[in-house]
Amino acid sequence: MSLEKFLNQAVSSWMNEDGPFSEIVLSTRIRLARNHNQYAFPTVFTKEEAEQTAQAVSAAVKETGYPLEELKMKDLQGLEKRVLVEKHLISPNLAEDTSSSSVWLSDDEDISLMVNEEDHIRIQCLFPGLQLKEALRRALEIDDALEEHFDYAFDENFGYLTTCPTNVGTGLRASVMMHLPGLMMTHQMNRIIPAIGQFGLVARGIYGEGSEALGNIFQISNQTTLGKSEEDITEDLLHVVDQIIAQEKSAREALVKSSGIQLEDRVFRSYGTLRYSRVLESKEAAKCLSDVRLGIDLGFIENVSRSILNELMIFTQPGFLQQYAGGFLRPVERDIRRASLIRERLEMDVSKDKGGSDI
Amino acid sequence: MSLEKFLNQAVSSWMNEDGPFSEIVLSTRIRLARNHNQYAFPTVFTKEEAEQTAQAVSAAVKETGYPLEELKMKDLQGLEKRVLVEKHLISPNLAEDTSSSSVWLSDDEDISLMVNEEDHIRIQCLFPGLQLKEALRRALEIDDALEEHFDYAFDENFGYLTTCPTNVGTGLRASVMMHLPGLMMTHQMNRIIPAIGQFGLVARGIYGEGSEALGNIFQISNQTTLGKSEEDITEDLLHVVDQIIAQEKSAREALVKSSGIQLEDRVFRSYGTLRYSRVLESKEAAKCLSDVRLGIDLGFIENVSRSILNELMIFTQPGFLQQYAGGFLRPVERDIRRASLIRERLEMDVSKDKGGSDI
């Protein structure tokens, strides 16, 4: 398969569409955790109960009329599941489960509904750019529609009941994926990360808890799910995100002013590495992609699409590389494949721009 | 002035013509030191004697009919002299002298005749590739022609007399500029340099004694000028150079076999740096130019001309950069200018190849 076709099939709408503030906010995610009030929760249920739950969810989803398609974990190959994890459509936990768990996906992958992960249902909406309110509205719409056909575990005092107490209440996790090279280069993240903790928020790397902030990408999300409404939680997150956006913008302006040519040099060297290297580890790829994306945002680079960072941060993960290669790859083979995939992808942009490739 | 025009004017024939074994030997130089038997030698002569010598040389050169043009040191700006040094047409010593010293140059700069440097006359022939015999023949031709009109200091026992005793006898320095990335990468030069010393030869960096082997370029030349004929000296040098060529070739083959993709990666990363960096120090430029030239020799890179190493090693020296800029540049400005000159130069090749530039 040609790379262009492969990518066209693989890309989710949140990756390649520009959203509000997309020069800094890559994407917005809303997740709601829900459980049925009659079945045992996933950590303790039997195989039979798991199957009953899955069937109840299936029936409810179909009743809602949402055009979602189910992928059952037991029907998927390891590599296929890995790709879904890398696209943030399922969690690593769900991928490990082989019994009655599944994911329901919309065609352009902005909606994903995990079944029998830590909770019976996890509704997720993924939007490009900063769209907390829009994503919340959509998630609550789906939530309401499901609730008509699925009896949620709900407590008058606590709110929605969940397996993990940290999700009790709203069951909401709102998170925003931010590209913060300016704050990283000016060494401000070490100050910001503890500061946002005071607002009940947390900053994580691109693949969640414990993962590194590869490519200067941070997920900022709420920790607190209890005692505030969904609207207040997203409002508070939005407030902090707005401030971080402003700080990132001033950091970038300061960098351009204080070391314009050095910054341009860094950006273009990274572009050179992406366009020509033959062996590329994921960490270096992420660093270079971040630089190039910054270069696009600052107007240094013109003929590369902005979605390059979102797309390639995901498509150069081990799962995707192996799916594109059509089988297992050793780490060094992945580094070679990663380099060639990135070269080809950039070549697509250059060719579009000039009607011809140059090497 | 456009870069293309500037380079066309600046390039010497030995830089951009392919000579024998030019995948490893960049150029060949023959230098003969000669003095007049009646005037005091340059280290001790008076201003008047210096002037007399200069006039005697001038008269002799004109008698020979060689179409050489004289550039008097006292008429040149510092920057112009620096450029001549960088092109190996005059020595740094001559450039420092402002009295009666000069250089006579042929149109394509394959012949240069320094007057009143350490010796009254230094005849130099510069040829592309490995052409020791050809360059020696040409130098001796000029030498013979001059001798008819200029009375050489010659001793029956010692041969030609020179200011420095290390040049007495033949007054000959034969040297070959070799590009030896394979031997450097396989750490063999530390063994080879002392070994060739046993043959009365010495290996130096690109700008002579004490200079670093920037860009993996070594000048191999004879130390001994006495007790052997000119032909034997060049023959012995040729013999050693042939062996080094063979060793460099096997080193390259071994590298391709043992680490083909890593080598290709190194070559292309360097190409990326040269094509896109905005600030480039001379040391890194030399390293990258060496890598790219190796990549051309190994067939990894196809649309860049082989002369890129010879040309750009010289045109990215401080003198040239400042001449092209039209005035003095601070070191950081030179690094910026160096990067942009190299980018433009590579762009010329790419454009020729594809009829359009890509960034």
UniProtKB/TrEMBL annotation, chains A, B:
Its recorded reaction(s) are: L-arginyl-[protein] + ATP = N(omega)-phospho-L-arginyl-[protein] + ADP + H(+)
Q: How is its activity regulated?
A: Appears to be allosterically activated by the binding of pArg-containing polypeptides to the pArg-binding pocket localized in the C-terminal domain of McsB.
Residue span of motif RDXXRA motif of the pArg binding pocket involved in allosteric regulation: 334-339
Gene Ontology biological-process entries = phosphocreatine biosynthetic process
Q: Which InterPro entries match?
A: Arg_Kinase (IPR023660), ATP-guanido_PTrfase (IPR000749), ATP-guanido_PTrfase_AS (IPR022415), ATP-guanido_PTrfase_cat (IPR022414), Gln_synth/guanido_kin_cat_dom (IPR014746)
- Tell me the keywords, alphabetical order: Allosteric enzyme, ATP-binding, Kinase, Nucleotide-binding, Transferase
Is the keyword Electron transport in the record? no
Which superkingdom does the taxonomy of this entry point to?
Bacteria
Instruction: Spell out the GO cellular component terms annotated for this protein, sorted alphabetically and separated by semicolons.
Output: extracellular space
Which GO molecular function terms does the record list? Answer: ATP binding; creatine kinase activity; protein arginine kinase activity
Q: Which residues form the signal peptide?
A: none
Q: Specify the Phosphagen kinase C-terminal domain's residue ranges.
A: 24-251
One Pfam match, given by its short name, reads ATP-gua_Ptrans
Class of this enzyme: transferase
Which residues does the record give as ATP binding sites? 27-31, 88, 122, 173-177, 204-209
Q: In the Enzyme Commission scheme, what number(s) does this protein have?
A: 2.7.14.1
| Family indicated by similarity | Belongs to the ATP:guanido phosphotransferase family.
The protein's job, in short, is: Catalyzes the specific phosphorylation of arginine residues in proteins.
Could you identify this protein by its name? Protein-arginine kinase
* Source taxonomy: Bacteria, Bacillati, Bacillota, Bacilli, Bacillales
The gene behind this protein is mcsB
